[in-house]
Amino acid sequence: MRRGRAYAARLSQLTRASAVNCLLDRLGSLAESLQSRPDALALLALGSVGRETERIDAWSDLDFFVIVRPGAKAAYVRELDWLAAAHPIAWAFKNTADGYKALMADGVLCEFAVFEPQELPGIPFAPGRWIWRREDEVPEHWATPVPALPQPQSTEWRVGEALSNLLVGLQRYLRGERVAAMRMVQVYAMDRVMELIDAAEAHAPGVSRDPFTADRRFELRHPARASDVRGWAPGIAHTPQAALALLDELARHQPLPEAVASRIRALAAQCGAPHPDRPKA
Questions:
Q1: How confident is the model over 149-205, as pLDDT tens digits?
Q2: How far apart are CA 7 and CA 146, in angstroms?
Q3: What is the chain's Cα-based Rg?
Q4: 165 close to 192: Cβ distance less than 8 angstroms
Q5: Cα 3–9–12 angle (5° rounding)?
Q6: CB–CB of 82/35 below 8 Å?
Q7: Contact 207, 150 (CB under 8 A)
Q8: Angle value at C-alpha 167, between 161 and 168, nearest 5 degrees
Q9: CA gap 78, 16 in Å, rounded
């Protein structure tokens, strides 16, 4: 048994090392491609390949910005030959006016955008890491966003928003809108609950929080909460049960208005949901 665990741990280390080498080498190849183009100014790595390379694993993707000279952006968005020069592209989807999601032939998934210098001050992003830049034209501080990152909402706002999500979600469930109900309860309300937990409870050492969304790495930050998550997101057929479980969690963070809590419980009962702590009769 010990040998098996040791082998699995070693295999995991090797897999991570291979992923790190692959992604960082790919960024290097991309930098070489861009350096050869006089209208390219810089390559900024983001996410796990940016300032948090300790998070890279076999499932990491390649997030980056390409900075180009004024007037050059349209050509870089229209033609991806500069990306294909780093590695052949199997598929690319233009998901915004600025960039793409692309799958390289070896399975590396990229998500990137192209910007001109004057656009950067209006773009929110987590601080990145320069892979390459023309130092006489691109200052170091451009790697840090000018717009402030999203500021956390108050406990009162998060609780109130989640309660309204539960109310609307259960009403949609009773109307027969099961997909809309699932998203309102098991996505939107659960997002607010995860934000509350992030603010109130200690995080596991070394596990960072994505500044834009609470669900990324939530189970790693709060391993003791893994079983709770299963109750908050049990699937489309169990939205009423999820609503009651989330309601109970909300009550741990702030006293709830009895009128609202009672209404949510009544709607869940109308849906046929037993309280999660009470067995069916």
A1: 566 778 898 998 899 899 989 989 998 999 999 999 999 999 999 899 887 666 667
A2: 46
A3: 23
A4: yes
A5: 140
A6: no
A7: no
A8: 90
A9: 34
